[in-house]
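Hi support team,

I submitted a single chain yesterday and got back a structure, but I'm not sure I'm reading the token output correctly. Could someone confirm the output below corresponds to the sequence I sent? I've pasted both exactly as they appear in my results page.

Thanks,
R.
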Amino acid sequence: MAKNNLASPSIPKKVVTGKGGFIAATNSILSSFVCIIIGLLVGFIILLCINPEHCLEGFMTILSGGFNNISIHARNISKEISEAAPLIMTGLSVAFAYKTGLFNIGAAGQYTVGALGAIYCALVLQLPWYVCILAAMVCGAIWGAIPGLLKAFFNVNEVITSIMFNWIALYGVNEIVKKFAITNADGSITRMYESAKNKTYAIATKAPGSRIPDLGLSDIFSKSTTIAIFLAIIVAIIIYIVINKTTFGYELKACGHNKNAAKYAGINERRSIVLSMVIAGALAGLGAALYYLSGVGEWNPNDSTACPAIGFNGISVALLAVCNPIGCIFSALLISHITVGGSCLPTAYYQPEIADIIIGVIIYLCAFAMLFKMFIGKFVKDRSGANANAEPKASVASTSKKEESK
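Hi R., thanks for writing in. Yes, this is the structure output for that exact sequence:
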């Protein structure tokens, strides 16, 4: 029998271990730092152009974030923490899908549907907070599964379907919330908090059992501080383990690298695509639950005419973190820190949107992260090569000196 010389297709797999893996990780971190530094410099130049006299003060205010004013720093730090938790989750949603070869631009819609699940279970059904979280995850997972199914069975681009489903989620949720919203004494629909004067949110007053516990953090910072940030960090660690240390994560990444090769290797590529979007949607829905069940904000259907910015900011978090789940924690904290710092700018001289410009520049530069990594890698390689060439010369010189002494 003739021997078959055809090479079987294999799943592309880039294995970087030991010193090489450490260098690759270091290059990724340094490239992100380069993006951040350039973005901050651009922000400083903008402040300088607007008002040269107070540019240094404004720049230090942005850098200080929630630590600007000692008398109100606890409230600002609480704001940073509260906004970072959902940012971590939406960043994980985008990063997880990207690791499996999908671009989940529908995190905003999944976040919106997750908010509906959390708010409805809390204010209408009066369920415990952990049940409300599970409901939000299920709602987000279902909304994420639809683009996944269309991609897996009909090869419809997930970017197109997820964008369209963002708006379907927004207006659909607004109609449902209007029907079950907390109302005033005269029956008119108002915001989802108890008192418009005192801004006491309905989650804390109408359904205290549905609020995420604070475990004493509210005594240190503000009343809206809960353990949501710790839950988000734990989930990020779990996602990192799933992606990098499990067979399930390997199958998802393999399908993302090469769907045909994964199918040849016995991996169900359709199931992998659907599960990837389901998990991404559940993560976005969890982010909404962590935000609204903490009593930080409310959902007002009369004002919610645009998809939540947190959903789209998750793309920024994922890009800055190079789609690393652990990196999403730090990038979300950084973006939240700069945003709060921008809100503390003196409005007599500057507008808080300057912080958004800085974040936008940083994210734009993330598109060149691979270029930065290439330059950093080349620099490190040249330096290591120079040191390697210098060592033999030094050894030859020392040997000749020993011979002369003899």
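A quick pointer for reading it: The first helix runs from residue 18 to 50. Let us know if anything else looks off.

Best,
Support desk
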